[in-house]
Amino acid sequence: MTRSPRPSPPDGLVYIEDTAAGPGIASRLGIAPATVRRWRSLGRGPATFRIGKKVVARISVIEAYLAEREREGLQARPRAA
């Protein structure tokens, strides 16, 4: 049985999992969807919210979250002498 693609989220938003419209939160972060769900239950990770039964995040929030992780990683690295 072939599964039809998931409907796309509204413009500027992404679901946890990938859709026909593109990568979801998990793919953008390089983690499993279950990890996004666990982080959400623990109050960690990028800000998400519900639209009906679907969990979504703004693409801009995902990008800001990644940029902040990058800044933290660069600050934690010792500088070469």
Structure, described:
By secondary structure, the protein is α+β, with helices and mostly antiparallel strands. It is 41% helix and 14% strand. The chain contains three helices and three strands. The protein has helices spanning 25-29, 33-42, 59-76; strands at 13-15, 49-51, 54-58. A three-stranded antiparallel beta sheet has the order 1-3-2. Strand 2 (49-51) and strand 3 form a beta hairpin. The longest helix has 18 residues, at 59-76. The radius of gyration is 15 Å and the shape is elongated.
List keywords for this structure.
alpha+beta; 14% strand; 81 residues
The level of helicity is: 40-55%
What's the pLDDT, averaged over the residues? 91
Strand order of the largest sheet: 1-3-2
Tell me the number of strands: 3
What gap, in angstroms, lies between the N and C termini? 60 Å
Q: What is the string of SSEs from the N terminus onward?
A: EHHEEH
- Structural class by sheet pairing and helices: alpha+beta
Integer-rounded radius of gyration: 15 Å
Task: Tally the helices.
Answer: 3
Low-confidence runs: none
β-sheet strand percentage: 5-15%
Which sheet architecture does the biggest sheet show? Answer: 3 strands, antiparallel
From the spread of the alpha carbons, the general shape counts as elongated
